[in-house]
From TrEMBL:
Domain Mandelate racemase/muconate lactonizing enzyme C-terminal: 80-178
PANTHER family referenced in this protein's UniProt entry, alphabetically: O-SUCCINYLBENZOATE SYNTHASE (PTHR48073:SF2), O-SUCCINYLBENZOATE SYNTHASE-RELATED (PTHR48073)
Species of origin: Mycolicibacterium peregrinum
Alphabetic keyword roster: Menaquinone biosynthesis, Metal-binding
Gene3D superfamilies tied to this protein: Enolase-like C-terminal domain
UniProt-recorded name of the protein: O-succinylbenzoate synthase
Domain of life: Bacteria
Phylogenetic classification of the source organism: Bacteria, Bacillati, Actinomycetota, Actinomycetes, Mycobacteriales
Length: 321
């Protein structure tokens, strides 16, 4: 890998978000050019599995993505922990029929207000799921899920209500709403070795932390659960990997949480190539578009300390691979 790619020339970008998403106000990362194309290396600040992120970033430019079995993917709009009015606005403008609503940041009253607003924004026939990102203990989760299920008229599922697999299993035995597992997979040292049958009904996968579309596809096969693909707030280049995974899954029973490009104030590719949801779908492409020079210049990181921080992270990933 190191002989095929000039990592020293990898540009570092920083794109502001239009509002805080998962605590982020700026999304940073690096773009990696391989012999066949570009990939994105953008592990979040707390991420430790840097080699997986590097494998994901080099995949499209070297071995390529797996062959798709579908040409487009249904999208669930992600609703961050914003106020109810903003949540309704995002849902209504999305063009999606499904929304994944972040919960557990404030109190339950705020969560209930937010999901009511999203339900109104989606309109008749809208489908809601909630993502707690492991913020609850089992008793809190059981009570919150019951309340959210009542308010929405029936949740599609709830993702990662508690931080551990054992706690997820406890919750799953006590609620009627399907339970999805996300962080427990992406943060595992051995994602393919996890036994999730008692803990979850659905697996939520992200390509960056799992080592790319091909490796994530193997995780999907090993877990034996229906899968949803989610994003980590990537640019269009990074989102392409998630769509490649969603396009290659043998079965896709749920809309995927890949409609996040709109939370960034810009992109590294031309507007005509930017992945913006249309009528609730995004296309699957054989490889991501190349970045556009003027966009790279606009969003280039110039602070020496920040550049050094990213290059040190990349070097750690290379050394460990």
């Amino acid at each position: 890998m190191q002989t095929l790619i000039d990592f020293d020339r990898a540009p570092v970008f920083a794109i502001p978000t239009i509002e805080p998403v998962g605590g982020l106000t700026v999304r940073e990362g690096m773009l990696i050019e391989g012999p066949q194309g570009w990939g994105e290396f953008s592990p979040l600040p707390h991420e430790g599995a840097l080699t997986r992120w590097l494998t994901s970033a080099t995949e499209p430019g070297t071995v390529g993505w797996p062959d798709p079995v579908r040409g487009r993917v249904p999208i669930a709009i992600t609703i961050p922990a914003v106020d109810a009015a903003r949540a309704r606005e995002i849902a209504a403008a999305s063009g999606c029929r499904t929304a994944a609503v972040e919960v557990g940041v404030g109190g339950l009253a705020e969560d209930l207000e937010r999901v009511r607003a999203v339900r109104d924004g989606l309109g008749a026939g809208g489908v809601l799921r909630c993502d707690a990102k492991g913020r609850w203990d089992p008793d809190t989760a059981v009570a919150a899920i019951a309340a959210l299920d009542r308010v929405t008229g029936g949740l599609e599922f709830v993702t990662q209500p508690c931080p551990t697999v054992d706690e997820l299993a406890q919750v799953r035995r006590r609620v009627d709403v399907p339970v999805a597992v996300g962080e427990s997979i992406r943060e595992s040292d051995d994602p393919m070795g996890l036994r999730l049958g008692e803990a979850a009904d659905i697996a939520v996968l992200a390509t960056g932390p799992l080592g790319g579309a091909r490796r994530a596809l193997r995780v999907a096969e090993s877990c034996g659960l229906p899968c949803v693909v989610t994003s980590t707030l990537e640019t269009t280049i990074g989102l392409g990997a998630g769509l490649a995974l969603a396009g290659a899954l043998p079965e896709l029973a749920f809309a995927c949480e890949l409609g996040t490009r709109g939370f960034l104030a810009g992109d590294v590719v031309a507007d005509s190539r930017s992945l913006v949801t249309v009528d609730g779908y995004l296309p699957v492409a054989p490889m991501p578009p190349a970045p556009q020079l003027d966009r790279l210049e606009r969003y280039a990181v110039t602070d020496p300390a920040r550049l050094a921080w990213w290059r040190e992270r990349l070097q750690r990933a290379i050394s460990a691979s």
